[in-house]
UniProtKB/TrEMBL annotation:
InterPro entries: G1P_thy_trans_s, Nucleotide-diphossugar_trans. This is Glucose-1-phosphate thymidylyltransferase. It comes from Corynebacterium marinum. The keyword Transcription does not apply. GO terms for molecular function: glucose-1-phosphate thymidylyltransferase activity. The keyword Magnesium applies. Keywords: Magnesium, Nucleotidyltransferase, Transferase. The lineage of its organism: Bacteria, Bacillati, Actinomycetota, Actinomycetes, Mycobacteriales.
Length: 80
């Protein structure tokens, strides 16, 4: 058994039932609206970890520009 303590600000969302999945979805929506940040973005995580640079993030955003997500990626790449 391997145990890892959650850091301050980390949240564990149990989604084993329909109700808990719905609650988790609502929680994520509220946090994203309050913070203006997307939770669970693999592109942003790769950028933050140094796996891709800002220009690569902008390139990944290009095909998604018609969506709010593409605009979000561009803003992250341009540090806005």
């Amino acid at each position: 058994l391997h145990v890892q303590r959650l850091q301050r600000g980390d949240v564990w969302l149990d989604t084993g039932t329909f109700d808990s999945m719905s609650e988790a979805s609502s929680y994520v929506e509220v946090i994203q609206k309050r913070t203006g940040q997307v939770i669970g973005s693999p592109e942003v995580a790769a950028h933050q970890q140094g796996f891709i640079d800002a220009s690569a993030l902008e390139e990944l955003a290009q095909p998604l520009l018609k969506s709010g997500y593409g605009e979000y990626l561009l803003n992250v790449a341009r540090d806005r």
